[in-house]
What does this fold into?
Amino acid sequence: MAPLLKINNVAVAVEKRGELLKPVDGISFSINEGEIVGLAGESGCGKSMTALSIVNLLPHGVNIHSGEIIYNNKTLTSLSEKEMRRVRGREISVIFQEVRQSLNPLMRVGKQITEALELSGGKNKEANKTHTLEMLRVLGFDEPEKIFDAYPHQLSGGMCQRIMTAVAAISRPRLLLADEPSSSLDIESQERILSLLMQMNREFNTSILIISHDLSIIRKFCSRFLIMYAGKIVEEGPSQALFSPLHPYTHALTGAIPGKDKRGAKLENIPGKVPSVENRLSGCPFAPRCKKAQSICKETFPPAIEKEDRRFHCHFPLTGDLSE
Ligand SMILES: Nc1ncnc2c1ncn2[C@@H]1O[C@H](COP(=O)(O)OP(=O)(O)OP(=O)(O)O)[C@@H](O)[C@H]1O
Ligand SMILES: [Mg+2]
It folds into this structure.
């Protein structure tokens, strides 16, 4: 089966003071029809840039520098903006991480949701409103009519996050890119959003990319994981293997969680910092923080090694046992 989405060696670049910087630096992965894939990594590793590159909504001045993105046999990277607009929303939706910036502050939230429905072909205004009110109820709003008429500034951050989810989900896209869909939410709202995503996956076979800091969410809901470090995907595999990693960075991430099953845990406890885009060396970017690093690691970025359904970039991988 051909994958629904295929990312081939994509680099995303921005020019700063005459230098070409790459927040995403040659990544490849795919998502099959109906599959849920998780993407994790510390802050600044390029997760959002990866998602935004798929729908061509990168920030101003940031562009796809090389590689190609193929969705449903269409090369997205060669579509015009007009053609891309037809894909966005109807075929591929995004739950943006920057929720406040993504909602229109001047438009009532109900209208923002029904507009998404109209865009995907919902012509009947009455039916669109009923559908929207239902979706608001599913997302935990007890008085959906009131919310329908509200403006984003009248709602809390968590409420806006649920509205964003409604905008992205209502048109039943074939692929949903969910960038931290449940972070900074109370447990009940987190669960509502995640259970809506799972329901879409079950009922409509929606493929989902979940970006999350929370590895336990990835372990629980995704069939495969991708771990990103400094613009590169350093490890990928089936999510049951997430806690027996091969790459020392994945190992450090899993170790940074206080208790594997704790929800909402932040990945803040790895000594050292992700190198900024301006300071990336030619070798393995994790080498300066890696206990196993030797001189070759600082010199050459390791080629991909594939082992059954796992793939990683490391000169000195672990054996898949967390105790190492
Ligand atoms: N508008 C921009 N112009 C240039 N560089 C940017 C811009 N926005 C982000 N970056 C850089 O791109 C890199 C990747 O950013 P990105 O937002 O994709 O990280 P992330 O993995 O999503 O982080 P987080 O977990 O904090 O959401 C960062 O190092 C950041 O400094
Ligand atoms: Mg992000």
